[in-house]
Design goal:
Layout: H1 5-13, H2 73-76, H3 79-84, H4 90-97, H5 103-115, H6 124-129, H7 139-144, E1 174-175, E2 181-184, H8 219-230, E3 237-240, H9 250-262, E4 268-272, H10 275-278, H11 281-285, H12 287-302, E5 306-311, H13 321-332, E6 337-342, H14 351-363, E7 366-372, H15 387-397, E8 408-413, E9 418-421, E10 427-429, E11 434-438, H16 440-443, E12 446-451, H17 459-466, H18 471-482, E13 488-490
Parallel strand pairs: 2-3, 3-4, 4-5, 5-6, 6-7, 7-8, 12-13
Antiparallel strand pairs: 1-2, 8-9, 10-11, 11-12
Helix pairs in contact: 9-12
GO molecular function: 4 iron, 4 sulfur cluster binding; catalytic activity; metal ion binding
Family: Belongs to the radical SAM superfamily. KamA family.
Keywords: 4Fe-4S, Iron, Iron-sulfur, Metal-binding, Plasmid, Pyridoxal phosphate, S-adenosyl-L-methionine
Length: about 500
């Protein structure tokens, strides 16, 4: 329910239940509260600004893009329209926004794309939600469209496959790192391409700077992965990602779901997709895809197995009434949706932006699950934050809502250590930005190191990293101070 300042003022003055605004006292089922006195308030009164997470953009926001002027809601909600108008070439982006930005911005984007490890792909939905009056600092532009002036020099320890996924891959398209869980990568395309993609070594096709590994969207190729999973009785949990499960045809989504559910020891499945954040109308307009997902979820429930959808909202600015309606449809059809955010500088790295995101997700029945410390991926240094900053942010966020709707802030330990609570390091040096983690359940013989962006370090720390001859010594000191010099360090 939306409350104005006048409503809140009325509530503050109300003496009985019947004095509350918006016809609350007339709601069927609340008759038992008739004339009930309102208890004294112990907490300070809120303002409408404290409840903005309940507001969802419902106007024709896409019409601010000249090319979409006059496009009806019905047409914009069509996934065919979204696919047809997805921007995959610089020339097309320029056509859409040339009347909204100056030449300098366009030149900066062109040079930024030349340096980026990810190709350009952005949906009309996201394109329309960017604040083109101030694109330089817009949280959606930051995620999907690079500008040359925004880049920071890469930390010397960054890598394309920073999580070491390929080292834990028994067959193409499968990562087996944790004892009972595998990551299945049946394809390498997404509805949009995020600048910060942790899988930029494979996803989205070759760029000027990266020659990529490919995961083929081919059922015949998937048989190797299915056979491996069936041959490993310890595997109970399968994450289907990519690429993006949104891009699977309905029959292929069913094939994956039904095949995995038939394997006796598989108990849990998660379809991972950025889709609801960048093209939520697919859930509303692509009945075949949504029905396939719902049927796999239902089949899993019949078999006593859990099938859920994991998605990826990073900013409340990505969420509109279209999103709310899409999430409501999934919720009403019994589909559990959890969210995994990446902590990104300028997007969600303040208390206000993170709290707004968490509350908005919770309000539409999407469970905030993880906030990831930004992976150490080549070409993304301007987007990363320090571990110190993340720890402080987590402290501020915890307690703002129910515990089950409060995300865990985690570091996916570089080099294959898996997810660690961001504050669970065995040693952290704020000057050098080196944090040291153990991951005994993954490999008790190893240490995993994360490195803060150099530009976030104090002057003393920056100077240390300027001298390449000191790099190994900095790492040796951090390992020694962790108390685990007997373990093998893994760095990216």
């Amino acid at each position: 329910m939306r409350y104005t300042e006048q409503d809140i003022s009325t509530i503050q003055k109300a003496e009985t239940f019947n004095d509350l605004p918006n016809g609350i006292s007339d709601i069927e089922g609340l008759e038992i509260l008739d004339k009930q006195p309102i208890p004294d308030h112990l907490k300070d009164s809120v303002s409408s600004g404290d409840l903005t997470h309940r507001l969802f953009e419902s106007e024709s926001f896409w019409e601010k893009i000249p090319a979409f002027k006059g496009v009806s809601e019905e047409e914009f909600l069509s996934i065919k329209f979204q696919n047809k108008n997805t921007v995959r070439k610089l020339e097309k982006l320029e056509q859409f926004i040339k009347d909204l930005v100056d030449d300098n911005f366009l030149d900066q984007v062109k040079e930024g794309m030349r340096r980026s490890p990810m190709n350009l792909s952005i949906s009309p939905y996201i394109l329309s939600l960017i604040d083109w009056d101030n694109p330089w600092t817009d949280p959606l532009r930051i995620q999907f469209i690079p500008v040359n002036s925004g880049f920071e020099p890469d930390h010397p320890k960054l890598a394309l496959d920073s999580l070491g996924e390929q080292g834990d891959s028994p067959v193409d398209g499968l990562v087996h790192r944790y004892f009972d869980k595998v990551l299945f990568l049946p394809l390498d395309v997404c509805p949009v391409y995020c600048r910060f993609c942790t899988r930029s070594y494979a996803v989205g096709g070759n760029t000027d700077s990266v020659d990529k590994k490919r995961f083929k969207n081919a059922p015949e190729k998937w048989k190797e992965a299915f056979t491996y999973i069936a041959s490993r009785p310890e595997i109970e949990d399968v994450v289907i990602s990519g690429g993006d499960a949104y891009m699977l045809a309905p029959d292929r989504l069913r094939l994956i779901g039904e095949t995995l559910l038939e394997i006796p020891h598989v108990r849990r499945m998660r379809f991972a997709t950025k889709g609801p954040a960048v093209a939520p109308m697919k859930i509303l307009s692509d009945e075949a895809w949504t029905q396939a997902l719902v049927e796999v979820v239902k089949l899993g429930r019949e078999k006593g197995k859990e099938v859920v959808l994991h998605t990826h909202f990073n900013s409340a600015n990505e969420i509109t009434d279209i999103t709310r309606r899409a999430m409501l449809k999934l919720f009403q059809n019994g589909v559990t949706v959890r969210n995994q955010s990446v902590l990104i500088k300028g997007v969600n790295d303040t208390v206000d932006t993170m709290v707004e995101l968490i509350r908005k997700l919770s309000y539409m029945n999407v469970q905030p699950y993880y906030v990831y410390q930004h992976d150490m991926v080549t070409g993304t240094e301007d987007m990363r934050t320090s571990v110190k900053h993340t720890v402080e942010l987590e402290k501020a966020v915890r307690g703002i809502t129910a515990g089950f709707n409060t995300p865990l802030f985690v570091t996916d330990a570089p080099g294959g250590g898996g997810k660690r609570d961001v504050h669970s390091y065995d040693y952290y040096d704020e000057t050098t930005g080196i944090s040291v983690y153990r991951s005994p359940s993954v490999d008790e013989s190893k240490l995993y190191l994360y490195f803060d962006p150099i530009e976030t370090l104090p002057v003393e720390g920056r100077k240390l990293w300027e001298d390449e001859s000191l790099h190994e010594k900095l790492i040796e000191v951090a390992i020694e101070k962790s108390g685990y010099s007997n373990l093998e360090p893994v760095i990216g």
